[in-house]
Amino acid sequence: MMKMIYAIVRPEKAYEINKALADAGFGASTKWSVSGRGKQHGIHVGDVIYEEMSKNILMIACDDEDKNEIIDVIMDSAQTGEEGNSGDGRIFVVPIEEAYTISTRSKDD
Predict the structure, then answer these.
(1) How far does Cα 4 stand from its chain's mean position?
(2) Are 69 and 3 in contact (CB under 8 A)?
(3) CATH of 2-107 among 3.40.1160.10, 3.30.450.20, 3.30.300.20, 3.30.70.120
(4) For residue 77, which of 20, 24, 32, 97 is within the disulfide window of CB 3.0 to 4.6 Å?
(5) pLDDT in tens, 33-80
(6) Is 3:61 a contact under the CB 8 Å cutoff?
(7) What pTM does this model have?
(8) Is the per-residue pLDDT at 109 higher than 90?
(9) What is the distance, to the nearest Å, from the Cα of residue 95 to the centroid of all Cα atoms in its chain?
(10) DSSP classification of residue 105
């Protein structure tokens, strides 16, 4: 069975993550810009509260046996600082029930 990996990451890390994935042999991904907030409920800078932060979501479809390697590459590339920081992101993994290639109208294995 295949998996879909959704990685919500800092926008300034997206290029580095995609390059690391490609270098590891996982070149296919989809990226889009989003905004939101996590557990930290935004950022307080003086009297200003930024409730939503810009993020990128990377979407990677993969075989089960590649899932852990892809997650490791993302974590290694996305983490800021030696021990990471709040807002570095989240990774979600969900099963893919079916996939199709539009150009050939075929169901993927």
Answers:
(1) 10
(2) no
(3) 3.30.70.120
(4) 20
(5) 998 877 766 666 777 877 778 999 999 999 999 999 999 999 999 999
(6) yes
(7) 0.85
(8) no
(9) 15
(10) T
